[in-house]
Amino acid sequence: MTVRLEHANYTVSDGEATAAWMQELFGWHIRWKGDATSGGQSIHVGSDTQYLALYTPAQNTSEKADSYTTRGGLNHIAVVVDDIDAMEEAVKKVGFTTGNHADYEPGRRFYFHDHDNIEYEVVQYD
Length: 126
Fold this sequence. Notes:
Low-confidence stretches: none
Number of strands: 8
Distance between the termini: 28 Å
Largest sheet: 4 strands, mixed
Strand order of the largest sheet: 1-4-3-2
C-alpha cells in the first residue's frame, strides 16, 4: 500500500492574498475555489497532485494562540526546494522575514511567517 499526503486544510484571513503569494513564490496554481462550510470560501492552491486548501470564514478571523502549546495547533507547513538560496531571496522580495536557519541532516532549512503569522519551513535536501 502506498500512502501520500494529498492536501491540508487550514484557516487564513484572506485566501486570495495567500494563494497569490504562494503562486508567486512556489509556482503553484489554483486548482479550485468556491463556497465552503459556514458561508466561507475555500481556495485549493498547489500542484496537480498536492495542494493546500485555504479556508476563509465569512466572519473575521481571530489571532491563534501559540500553536506549539495548543493541542491540535498547526505549527508549520514545509515545502522542499532545489535552490534554497534563490527561494530565500524570493521570500524576502515579497516582504516576508526569514529566520531560524539550520543546516542538519538531511538538509538546509529556514522559516518565515506570512501575513497571518502562519509559519512556513523551506527545506533543501542535499
